[in-house]
Write a structure and sequence with these properties.
The chain is an alpha/beta fold. It folds into two domains: 280 residues, Aspartate Aminotransferase, domain 2 (3-Layer(aba) Sandwich); 133 residues, Aspartate Aminotransferase, domain 1. Helices cover 38% and strands 13% of the residues. Helix 3 runs parallel beside helix 12.
Amino acid sequence: MLDKTKAVRFAYNPNEHLGAMSVPIYQTTAYEFRDSEHAANLFELKELGNIYTRLNNPTTDIFEKRFCALENGYGAVATASGTAAIFYTFANVAQSGDNILVAKQCYGGTLTMAAHTIKRFGIEGRFFDIFNLDELVSQIDEKTKIIFFETIPNPAIEVADIEKIVQIANEHNILLCVDNTVATPILCKPLDLGADIVVHSTSKYCNGQGSAIGGIIVEGKSAAAKIKDNSRYAHFNEPDPSYHGLVYTDLDMPIFTLRARLALLRDFGGAPSPFNSWLNIQGMETLALRMEHISNSALEIAKFLEAHPKVLSVNYPGLESSKSYKNAQKYLKDGKASGLLSFVLDSKTAAQKVAESTKIFSLVVNIGDSKSIITHPASTTHQQLSKEELEAAGVDEGLIRLSIGLEDTQDLIADLKDALEKV
């Protein structure tokens, strides 16, 4: 199957669900076992099946399989949010005394988690510039458990040289995780490019209407191969005392997402609701069509802003003037760079004034909605960062981020033109 067909049909047979054409919502917390032996077999992994919705659910299972297929993955586990997916990815490999390497050009919430929150767990977050990979290499040691970056960082909106980062991760036998939220599997498939793990906030482009929070972790076949007999990941290669002495690397299955389900969903409980999984399934069906329109519209708007006298600079990888243009052409399908772009004005005051003056763009901190959104990151999503951290993340105080939706492109340009005239 190709992407559009996968997004609509994969992992669902109506004949197995009373002929229902729409995937049913299995809105239940628990499932009745046939007998005591059946229950015991499920808990001992002798049989696979539904136990409790914190661990698995039929609606969520279809969502996981369908999204995994879009990413050309090997296994997937859905979570309550994109942030939960990132945290579980870190917690799945690192413990007290370990470190993780995270790109400076990442979403503000990810940077805060890596710099501060997981520090309380004894895990050190180290940071590198995607355009200075010597900085990445210099920080790797025997306690480094994962390298993490975004295909299109929010809100820096650049594209890294993915192949070079893959090469570094493989040379050091370290798992590589890519947050593919902004590009989506329609525009980029990091697992095909050599990444081991992909995460998404499915609340964004996957859902497409800002109606459901969700996240997902997808692993490629390379993850298990990299983990097996690797001293960095001893806990995957040794008996798990919390699960009857299970040794994950003895299993011929997607072990990274399996452990995330059996250990982290089990103990932390950040599972998606079946209804949210269903809403995200609906969004997936139109994802390819939306990404086509949104990318085309964003490029047209970026060109308008680049020519505007009050705009100091525009960040959009689809522009030929972008330092990421070559990487975008190389790694993104047909060079289409999704719907996220940003531009810089000469002051924080001017940026806030424009953000407050639009009539069609909504002043919101979400992205990936069918409705266009305007955000001033320095006072919202990245407000918790210092001035130095803002600069490292590529967030100028005068920067405005736009998430382009499905409105008519000319209406959006006219809205921005009117707002810019007010500063």
